[in-house]
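In this supplementary section we document a worked example of the pipeline. Step one takes a protein sequence of length 264 as its only input; no multiple sequence alignment statistics are reported here. Step two produces a three-dimensional model, which step three serialises into structure tokens for compact storage. The input and output of this example are shown verbatim.
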Amino acid sequence: MSDFDSADTCTGPHWTGGCTWFLSLLLPIVAIVLFQTSHKAAYGSDDVSVTIVLLYSIFVLEMCSMGILGVFDYEWPDTVAQRSIIGQFACSKRHGKLMSLATRLRCKDLLDQHWSMESCHSSQNITTLVRRHVQDGWKDYITDAESYREFNDIRDQWTLEREGCHGGLNWSLEKPFDERILIWHIATDLCFHHMDASIASSQTCREISNYMMHLLVANPEMLMPGSRRSLFAIAYNELEDILEDYESTLVEEDNVAKQVIDKV
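The serialised model returned by step three reads:
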């Protein structure tokens, strides 16, 4: 499913955020002390007054942020937006009348663009998984500048080599970046529904894949300049052509994925 699907997904508290906040509170104090003890006679009174107001305002804002965090017990949002081609097909089948109405009103494309799956709550798990992948690269792979460039240029070669598919699927590595995202999203979805999905890393890899698909549709500029959101619509239309005779009453993603595998 990905080059880091076997990485450890454990999570733990991080003290770096607390240190960063402490420094952001300490630095204005240092600046205020230095400014108050410096020689200000060479500067105009207006400039001195404005500087004092700015320094104390920064300090007050930092103190207010501490109070807000203490009162509301704020935590970094853990939600990750999700989107899936198979999931959207299943949703469209479940809401066939609404989709037919949207088609007649010529707003189905707009509806598809703003449709999304329920967000997952795995931000920390995904961050830890990616961080562990990078750490393993530094320990086990990167030895010099050349290996560093190779590690950064990895395009799922490890997955293909590990699964013995490098020869038959090597063509996928030559595709543009946005097309590779789409190809590996479909492959990840089919593998997830076809194989044992009880492994924790399998679910996390699928959530990463769905988030990449969400970015491709909602914010393609966050992936790479020139990424085309239209690829999702093209792939979705091809899926509809493949399953044009889909009449099952079980409109669930598992069943849709099985139908795709049987037909392809």
